[in-house]
Amino acid sequence: MNTTKSHIHSVTSHGLQGIRSRAGEHLNQIVSNRSEIRVINQDEVVDEGDLLAQIGYKQELNRSYNSLQVFGIAFSIMGLLPSIASTLATGLEVGPVGLTWGWLISGLFILCIGALMSILSSLIPTSGGLYYWTNYYAPDLIRTPLSFMIGCSNSLALCGGICLINYGFAIELLSAIYINKDGNFDITNARVYGVFAACVVSHIILCCATTKHTATLQTFSIFINVFIIVLFFIAVPVGVSKNYEFNSAKFIFTEIKNFRTWDQGWSFMLSWMPAIW
Question: What are the transmembrane regions (predicted)?
């Protein structure tokens, strides 16, 4: 019995030493191949390709987007009216205070994050984005794992965001049909999933297009989003003034009605989610 235990212990120790040895060699190889931190001097930059060369990048991708179209990417992702409509109920679960002040407070924090990210992107305008910035500025000890974690979490968030946007669109589209038919329409799970799946397939097809074509589509998307917002600001006040009455400022900024099982404080903080989403 003791001989067997000794043999097992010997085999286990030998295996662990082999794993440690290979892991150590791999880490040493990574460290030895790592380049030194570069000093970037924007005053000596001739063009964008030269700036990327200072950072350590070679320009590989065609740049077909102009400044307006780059802005349009973020503007279209936000999809102001559809996003507000799909998250409106979450903000109102603590009353008008939750939707109004929750949006303003969380929006202030989001503005700070956006300003910091704009500074980083202007200093290091690389396609790597978040995980490259993390690798560039993080301490050596956590540089690689932290960059990996940021890259994976960002990829998962983008995949989840696409699904959420498509699901919200499916609900809104079917709700519009329901209202148009005065309730003579059933919104079933199968119909919701069908519209959702069609949206995902359409995105796959659009992603197969060249950057030149997607840039043109992006310009079209900007005008559509602006048109919807302008139409909203015209149609809603006119419709409310003819059929309803506007709520008072006191009701909008001070009225609290907690419909959640959480206490009032936590419920108010949960109402920040519409703007954060």
Answer: 68-89, 101-134, 146-170, 190-210, 222-240
